[in-house]
Write a structure and sequence with these properties.
With 193 residues, the protein is an alpha+beta fold. Among the domains are: 72 residues, no CATH class; 62 residues, DNA Binding (I), subunit A (Orthogonal Bundle). Helices cover 22% and strands 24% of the residues. The strands form 2 sheets. It has a 4-stranded mixed β-sheet with strand order 2-1-4-3, with helices on both faces. The relative contact order is 0.16. The structure holds zinc ion. The site of zinc ion has 8 residues, from strand 6 and helix 3.
Length: 193
């Protein structure tokens, strides 16, 4: 049986909009319950199950790398427009570049900077945060860039669903990446990568 490091399967809604990543086990569940509406992508994976008592043959399911799930199988709560804000995806959005000094750093040397500081009423939202190195964050302290005399080198933005799916999976298959890239909005920094 494949192990946990197997690629994640990209699920879509019936209209072909990217939905979320699922494990191959979860994808097998969709197939077994006949919830796969159609498939896309260039890869398929065959998983073997147990021996059938009726036929003596080994059961198997073939899972495609991109699958569209029939309507009601997708929970509405997963359809929120704004993806959750996490440091990993934030740093990835900003390409691990500090928004103030412009240098690239590894994950542990980066912080989440609130452009309008929380102490001044700034909120913890994609549009109010950028990646900053520890040094610049300390220097800026609880001030706005203007108050601190520090220029912000790039603008924050809210990644759309497709971009978020790219940001949160480090092991995307080429066909999955091609599919998601078509759904990333034009202002995304991924587009200029
Ligand atoms: Zn910096």
């Amino acid at each position: 049986m494949p192990n946990a490091s197997h690629p994640l399967i990209l699920t879509l809604d019936m209209q072909g909009a990217p939905h979320r990543w699922v494990s191959w086990q979860h994808a097998c569940f969709y197939y077994a319950k006949n919830l796969v509406a159609w498939v896309a992508g260039d890869h398929s994976f065959t998983f073997h199950g147990g021996m059938s008592r009726m036929t003596g043959e080994r059961s198997f399911i073939t899972v495609d790398s991109i699958i569209a799930i029939k309507g009601r199988a997708l929970a509405p709560r997963n359809h929120s427009v704004v993806p959750p804000l996490n440091n990993r995806e934030l740093f990835h959005r900003d390409r691990h570049m500090c928004g103030y000094c412009g240098h690239e750093y590894s994950f542990i040397r980066l912080t989440r900077d609130h452009i309008l500081p929380v102490s001044q009423g700034g909120r913890d939202l994609w549009m109010n945060v950028v990646t900053a190195c520890r040094h610049c964050n300390q220097k800026k302290s609880s001030r706005t860039p203007e108050q601190a005399g520090m220029e912000l080198l790039y603008a924050p933005y809210v990644p759309n669903k497709a971009e978020f799916l790219i940001l949160c999976n480090r092991h995307i298959l080429a066909d999955q990446m091609d599919f998601l890239a078509q759904h990333v909005s034009a202002h995304s920094r991924l587009k200029s990568a």
